[in-house]
Amino acid sequence: MNAHVGFVGLGHMGGPMAAHLVKAGYRVRGFDLAPEARAAAAEAGVQVVGAAPEAAAGADVVITMLPVGRHVLSVYQEEGLLAAAAPGTLFIDCSTIDVADARAAHEAAVRAGHRALDAPVSGGVVGAEAATLTFMVGGGAEDLPQAEPLLAAMGRKVVHCGPPGAGQAAKICNNMIVGISMIAVSEAFVLAESLGLSHEALYDVASTSSGQCWALTVNCPVPGPVPTSPANHGYRPGFAAPLMAKDLGLAASAARAGGVNAELGLRAAELYAEFAQGAGAHEDFSGIVRVIREGENT
Ligand code: NAD
Question: What residue stretches are annotated with the 3-hydroxyisobutyrate dehydrogenase-like NAD-binding domain (predicted)?
């Protein structure tokens, strides 16, 4: 008999993730504040309930996929999710949130008599729809066996990163690399243009040399060399600039809190915050190349 799963947050990511659990045979009770998210989930076979705590009642595992840390903490505590669950329930938070908030959520769950894992994802909406997400998990190794079959139904890879908060730490460190490297690749293409070097020539050299990286070979910020990259499709996301700005903001505040000398990470957070509020509001994060080239952010 497959487990009962409560699922709170049925948006762009949570919606398809919950749908994959239904397909895998889990009985999923879900809730979202947004009526359109509830309707789409019901269509996919999720039993939609009227409030978050109803999703936890009778569940073996409760998954949350919410925007930021304060939503997770509020749903867990003020909105009564933890209180509604049977003692010993496993809570898995898949949202990308601050490491300190992830630890606070873990502590709140344990105080309420439960078990908890942070399990943020990479792979984006495409990965959620195709069930090819990577899960980065923080928490007790003894809780992994119960989580793994569910995560496997929604993704392709599960990495246990360490104690509570370690999944979130891995996520923001990885995205700091990607954010900085996208700026580096973009600056290199713009420099190449000013030197009369073609995009193809730089791509052919860097993609087979030490400049090789995901920002170049998968999400290439200029049209041409990688036909599937958002640059060839009007910079439609992909991975939206506001999400990159959010993740870099989390990395920057963690770096400041830890006294880490992450100069490029802090600068990348500033550049993406500006871009996300301007021209990049609805664009893939690789669109930052145009701001670098033109110096305009409108
Ligand atoms: P989204 O805004 O589409 O979905 C979040 C959902 O949470 C919304 O439908 C909203 O109505 C719901 N919600 C908010 N507060 C609620 C509450 N109190 N009770 C019930 N529902 C509530 O966002 P998303 O793109 O699905 O992202 C979710 C998380 O996944 C974020 O932390 C994001 O950073 C992370 N993430 C997103 C992507 C991506 O490409 N979209 C990739 C990796 C990680």
Answer: 165-292
